[in-house]
Design brief:
This protein is mostly helical and 80 residues long. 80% of the residues lie in helices and 5% in strands. It has a two-stranded antiparallel ribbon. Strand 1 and strand 2 form a beta hairpin. Helix 1 packs antiparallel against helix 3. The longest helix is centred in the last third of the chain and has 27 residues. It is elongated, with a radius of gyration of 16 Å. The relative contact order is 0.13.
């Protein structure tokens, strides 16, 4: 498989995994979201759970961590 295709598939898998793991982690972080709402006044918890931005933030952090690790690994493999 061509390296660009393999990297694209890996990135797609990482995005899908970060959405699933991010959703689970967002629910586990309910005390954090309540604290953020109480401290800053930013709407974080609604009647049906965490706000949408909480899910996006958590998934974004996970995806960013994956990307940083991946870039570091690519640079190491290329000898930079």
């Amino acid at each position: 498989m061509k390296p660009i295709v393999a990297r694209a598939l890996e990135a797609l898998a990482a995005m899908m995994l970060s959405l699933f793991a991010g959703s689970l982690l967002t629910l586990l972080l309910l005390p954090l979201w309540r604290w953020i709402e109480a401290t800053t006044g930013i709407e974080s918890i609604g009647h049906s759970g965490p706000a949408g931005w909480c899910y996006l933030a958590t998934s974004g952090v996970l995806l960013t961590c994956w990307a940083l690790v991946r870039v570091r690994r690519i640079r190491r493999d290329e000898g930079h």
